[in-house]
Here is the input.
Amino acid sequence: RALEYIQAHTEASRGQIAARQSIVYEILGLKCEGLIVPIEIGDNREVMRLQEQLKKEMGFHVGAIRQPTVKKAILRLIARLDIDEIVLAKACERLTQIWVK
Here is the structure.
């Protein structure tokens, strides 16, 4: 059924994906090929702090991938199609406020 849905809604899905990619680029300055956005943080403690803060404040879940699993610690944002674009934009904006580069 999922494959049938994708085949029937290909163009609409492409538009939704492009809109989310645009939100991520406009707010975070990151280009991504799909909906998975690795955000390099570089510090295991900081990545955990950011993950917890976004979850606590907004109920927005991001992955906190730490060393040694990855070369440098990253937040893994997945801009899923079932997430409202406004919510995604707010989460990206909040991340820019709480993350000191």
Q: What stands out?
A: The two ends are 43 Å apart (CA to CA). The chain has a mean pLDDT of 94.
